[in-house]
Amino acid sequence: GVVKLMDSVLRSGNDLYFLYLDVLAPAMDAIGMKWHLGEIDIFIEHRASGIASRSAAQIGARFSRRGVHKGTVLIGSPTGEHHVLGSQLLGDLISMEGWKVDNLGGDVPSESFASAAVQISDVVAVCIASTMSETLPAMSKTISSIKKASDKPIVCFVGGAAVLDSEHAENLGADYWAGDPRMLMPLLQQH
Fold first, then answer.
1. Angle at the Cα of 172 (from 167 to 177), degrees rounded to 5?
2. Residues 144, 86, 23, 167: what is their CA dihedral angle, to the nearest 10 degrees?
3. Which residues of 124-154 are buried (b: 16+ CB within 10 A; e: fewer)?
4. C-alpha angle 5-83-22 in degrees, rounded to nearest 5
5. Which H helix or E strand runs over 157?
6. Overall pTM surpassing 0.85 (yes/no)
7. Residue 162 · residue 130 · CB < 8 Å
């Protein structure tokens, strides 16, 4: 099945970034586009997402670093954003690079995101993702809530298809834009 295919990609000399960002994510984007164009039923897209999530969970667990962490990175999506596979993949990549990851999932109210950022120990950064432009006001509110709730500076990164560039991220109140995890990691290393 899918896990065997993923193993084959890795055995061919590719890394987890390649598997997730150059194989799995484009495949899921193509399936999402087929649904958007009315070429497939939504159940097919949801089924594919479930298979991808379960398969990535099996593969990603192999790459998680054990031992001392660089700090905790909180990830999730704002109210109204139900797409969570990207956050799952991002969490695996961040964990592989040495951070502890707390993934809050999708559709997280801004107040809950802020509470988590303050109450979870050793939070060094927050990553908020959104694929749908209609969730951007909630993303902005989440960033504002986090910054207001914390008595120490917490770096907020934003990404996902709905966030267009650095200027857009800044207008949302974020500290940084990361178009994909390859952009995020060097920025995260600085904090």
1. 50
2. -10
3. bbbbbbbbbeebbebbbbbbebbbebeeeeb
4. 35
5. strand 155-159
6. yes
7. yes
Tell me the per-residue pLDDT of 159-177, one tens digit each, with 9 for 90 and over.
999 999 999 999 999 999 9
Phi-psi domain of 108 (left: phi exceeds 0; alpha: psi -120 through 50; beta: other): beta
Tell me the three state secondary structure of residue 80.
coil
pLDDT at residue 27, rounded to an integer: 96
With tokens 């398969």, the residue in question is 55
Q: What is the Cα–Cα distance from 77 to 142, expressed in whole angstroms?
A: 9
* 4 vs 11: CA distance, rounded Å: 10
Residue 40 in contact with residue 34, Cβ under 8 Å? yes
CA dist list (Å): 132 to 33, 157, 160: 13, 17, 8
Q: Which residue has the tokens 């039923």?
A: 41
Conformational region of residue 15, where left means phi above 0, alpha means psi within -120 to 50, and beta covers everything else: beta
Q: Which ranges of the chain does DSSP label H, i.e. alpha helix?
A: 2-11, 16-17, 25-36, 42-60, 85-96, 110-119, 136-149, 166-172, 181-189
Quick: pLDDT tens for 117-167. 999 989 999 999 999 999 999 999 999 999 999 988 999 999 999 999 999
Nearest to 63 by CA among 29, 127, 125, 14: 14
DSSP 8-state secondary structure symbol assigned to residue 150: -
CA distance 3 to 186: 29
